[in-house]
């Protein structure tokens, strides 16, 4: 497990967007960032889930979050421009962006993979992250210390049979993060890294491995140290890197 404990209030006065904040890893990250003092923008497609995490964040005494219902499958480019305008009016800057929402798609051989599903998975997992990052860059540039985190997977560096568009989308995510990191290094205060969460007890994991006992995997709350590290000031200057949430290791500087 990545060995890091964030100092209390280390995300105070920071505004952080978390995509897919209603469930699984995104939900844990949103709650975690709020507990460290951040104002979290809860972005997701199911409003009731966002409302329930909103309530939990208020109950834990953290800064009031914002709910941003947004369907990455359906959103048009102008919706991302509108998002940037609204966030700028509300917060003036953005200090963090966690790209967490993803679709699993089908677990089937490429020879039988449906083109429609392929396009959908690539759109949500890759295109949406690109368009959102591009739209929000001016707001991230307005921060003194901004962090973008993309979410990868072990099949984002090693192709595995039957992982189809999901695996290819994660390879693309790794590449996109490296390019953003290289282009933003030295000309901005924005760092860009990827996290591979590793096997984690969520709906997506259960769908990918229906026969598996969920208890053998860590809960999302248990893999949060690397999410804290990369979002907070202790990772300033760390960019273009790939982190495994469940591998042994610790901060680098
Ligand atoms: P999850 O439980 O399925 O949660 C995914 C989240 O993304 C949900 O909140 C979901 O919203 C949201 N989402 C999906 N499609 C969306 C769309 N079109 N628009 C907006 N939001 C959308 O998955 P997870 O396991 O927490 O996965 C989080 C990230 O970790 C993903 O990038 C995944 O690829 C990666 N990952 C997970 C594991 C693992 O073992 N769990 C391993 C490696 C990588 P709804 O709840 O409304 O559907």
Protein described:
There is one protein chain. With 253 residues, the protein is α/β, with parallel strands linked by helices. It has a single domain, classed as NAD(P)-binding Rossmann-like Domain (Rossmann fold, 3-Layer(aba) Sandwich), CATH 3.40.50.720. Helix content is 40%, strand content 14%. The chain has a seven-stranded parallel β-sheet with strand order 3-2-1-4-5-6-7, sandwiched between helices. Helix 1 packs across helix 7 and helix 3 packs parallel to helix 4. NADP nicotinamide-adenine-dinucleotide phosphate (NAP) binds next to helix 1 and helix 6.
Helical content (DSSP H or I, runs of 4+): 40-55%
Question: What structural class is derived from the secondary structure elements?
Answer: alpha/beta
* Annotated CATH architecture: 3-Layer(aba) Sandwich
- The ordered H/E elements are EHEHEHEHEHEHHE
The CATH superfamily label reads: NAD(P)-binding Rossmann-like Domain
Q: State the major sheet.
A: 7 strands, parallel
Strand line-up of the largest beta sheet: 3-2-1-4-5-6-7
* Small molecules bound: NADP nicotinamide-adenine-dinucleotide phosphate
